[in-house]
Amino acid sequence: MSLDTALAHPLEVKHLLLNNEVEYDTIPKSIATLKNLKSLSISNQKSLDFETLFKSLESLDSLEELSIKESNINLDGGIRNLKQLKVLELIRNDSKAFPLETIDSLNLDVLVIVEGNNGFLFEGELKKVSDLKELYLHGYSAKALNPNIFKLSGLETLVVSNGALSYVQNDVTKLQKLRELDITETPLATDTEQLERLRKLLPRVKITTYVLPPH
């Protein structure tokens, strides 16, 4: 469904995709009339004024899922005011750092961050308890987990794949609700000694270490 069609039938729209078929500079403020919108996916928007868009989205209480792919976005800006979001996906936006204050500001259940060869790191500090249940980090550059992750006491699923992870600190035991840890395609996935240690630390956690065959 095109944006124009969606705006012509605002109460009928629950899911909206804005992709590279049209490159936007701005999105009409009338997007705020899509009162039943549940998910918004944006891709390949290098020139879009995201700050104005986020301001328009603030009043959409039904909006639970936001996906932004291969676009230019400021994670320190208005995205932090979208308190209604439950799922946030950030995919290959060339973000070298993810500010932890963004997690503090939102009420997410699921956070997905995917970056390419250059990877990414966390910056800043978590200052309050988060309700985050699932955290997916694809392309995480650090060799160990950021200590702030251990403050996510409600975390049930942690995926740290296709990155540099080679060690998980003992503090991982603070994640008492953790049930799944996926370390696919990381140095840790092939380190027998560290894996044995990790399994002893987390006897009730399913640890996935799938390694892709060489191309």
Can you put this structure into words, describing what you see?
By secondary structure, this protein is of the alpha/beta class. It has one domain (3-208): Alpha-Beta Horseshoe (Leucine-rich repeat, LRR (right-handed beta-alpha superhelix)), CATH 3.80.10.10. Helices cover 13% and strands 21% of the residues. The strands form two sheets. It has a nine-stranded parallel sheet, with no helix packed on it. Strand 2, helix 2 (50-57) and strand 3 form a beta-alpha-beta unit. It is elongated. The termini are far apart.
Please give the domain count.
1
CATH H level: which superfamily?
Ribonuclease Inhibitor
The outline comes out as elongated
Q: Give the helix/strand class.
A: alpha/beta
- Reported by name, the CATH topology is Leucine-rich repeat, LRR (right-handed beta-alpha superhelix)
* Count of beta strands: 11
Q: Can you tell me the CATH class?
A: Alpha Beta
End-to-end Cα distance = 38 Å
Query: How much helix is in the residues?
Result: 10-25%
Largest sheet: 9 strands, parallel
Give the second-level CATH assignment, the architecture. Alpha-Beta Horseshoe
- String of helices and strands: HEEHEEEHEEEEEHE
Quote the beta fraction.
Answer: 15-25%
Order of neighbouring strands in the sheet with most strands = 1-2-3-4-6-8-9-10-11
**Global mean pLDDT:** 92
Give me the number of helical elements.
4
* Unreliable stretches covering 5 or more consecutive residues: none
Cα Rg? 19 Å
